[in-house]
């Protein structure tokens, strides 16, 4: 097999620096938004004591989930021995680190006291999934960083390639289990409190991560004027289709389980029928935009050779995934907690029994988008500094694939 | 002209030594002083006590908010002001509410109940389980509260609390009372008037207010002391926990709900 050559991402200056400048501008807007929210307090956001986690959490969770999924391409190469995926491993590891950094930045900057981050890193309550996540997230950076080294240093890193690949794979499963369990272990709220949350988040990560990977790979190769072969794109495309279908399946099982439990009828009715904006986001956003249309674009013979269809499908998967996380995070809080089963709340100063309203502020959105920009900037800068992208991804000749 | 010598400069060594001693003393002394100063008062709370409350909903009057007002005064919530550019609706959703009045109607029988709702001081508090830093804590005497020095404002406890008992401080604090310090960006909730109780008081602010208005719906006391009024009352009347299905063994009990 011809030796794969990796080369730093190189394109003409205006294109590269123009792109970086745009990303830097978005990050600056996000920093201004953070200053506004932290200086004044969260009262300037749409968050309240009723909806305590807002749009920044949606962005953060979305990015963190996608981060672990972006590593899948590398895992397929090293853990499952897929030769077509192996050359993509380096970029996959880099993207995973970038997305996680972006997501964590948003998460941390939305804390009430981000200045106390050191407390969170030195004082642990080991019964808390959050505390575990602090360790899982830090460990992810370290392990994927080493994994990246093992992939890139062919002389000294090679012996560690397999073991690190396996470690990274299991670590990422643990990480997404931890993220899903943030919700799965909340007994109080009816929309959560389900063990299926953890595996559902894992399958969501497969799908969002791969969609992110396909878009950034296509963007990087367009940026640098390199080519990606048909065979490899088709493999990635078919895999995305499987993951999108799997997300829909898990969603179905989650709702069917809830529909079997009488106690959960009203929360199901809220999401599926009468929840207003959340119902619309579920059906139109998650199911149609994030599920049905991408599946059509990916599998319809009409688009079999269309790069645009693959890019659009990936983008729609991300948009649908964003709505899915929004419905889980915000919708789950907006639905009133059943503090007094069997009772109707006639009056309360604290919105007991009432659907909580939440209108995200512009600053929250800016912080969230800045998280994506942070991820993209890290990937763009590191791709120019490190040899992560193969010089060409043309299809191998017949008989070259073992 | 200075005298050159190959002998070490003893003055410099001495100076370094003295500086090191002074720096050590300055670092350690405040800790020692604090330990010495606290030695007399730092007995700590004991698990021989479990503070709890019994709410007699039959006595809780419709439209009365004496307990809420008293709590707000005791904990400096009444002196918090709405940010100028905030709507009343949002302020109501964002301002701290340690205790609230709730009016309920049974869906089947139509019976109407009034009750005050606050932190239920669970034996197994979900807020304590989820708190990443351990800021959300349960004292040995059963009081559940937030250590505002280690709270990072992640609000996970608010997601986990089945009673919506917690409030996040959304804006800057202009004024506060000595026994209830607060800061923007931290979470807080009812602490059963811990500063009062630790100072030797036997009643909470809400109980006093309810008593003063002649309702006597709130009874506070040590649930582990068989001779306390609350233990006797709990033995006499049947009471229940809100969301007893969660098996949290709450410290606040209600009769006739």
From TrEMBL, chain A:
A cellular-component GO term for this protein: plasma membrane
UniProt keyword annotations, A-Z: Cell membrane, Membrane, Transmembrane, Transmembrane helix
UniProt topology in membrane: Multi-pass membrane protein
The UniProt record lists the keyword Transmembrane: yes
Pfam families on file: NrfD
Main location: membrane
Cellular location(s): Cell membrane
Domain of life: Bacteria
Residue ranges of the TM segments: 16-37, 57-79, 91-109, 129-149, 169-188, 200-224, 236-257, 277-298, 310-335, 355-381
Family: Belongs to the NrfD family.
Protein name, entry field: Molybdopterin oxidoreductase
Organism placement in taxonomy: Bacteria, Pseudomonadati, Pseudomonadota, Gammaproteobacteria, sulfur-oxidizing symbionts
TrEMBL record, chain B:
Name the UniProt record assigns to this protein: 4Fe-4S ferredoxin
Annotated Gene3D superfamilies: 3.30.70.20
Limits of the 4Fe-4S ferredoxin-type domain: 51-82, 142-171
PANTHER family on file: PROTEIN NRFC, PROTEIN NRFC HOMOLOG
Matches recorded under PROSITE patterns: 4FE4S_FER_1, 4FE4S_FER_2, TAT
Keyword annotations of the record: 4Fe-4S, Iron, Iron-sulfur, Metal-binding
Cited Pfam families: Fer4_11
CDD domains on file: PsrB (cd10551)
Domain of life where this protein originates: Bacteria
Keyword Ion transport (UniProt): no
GO molecular function terms attached to this record: 4 iron, 4 sulfur cluster binding; metal ion binding
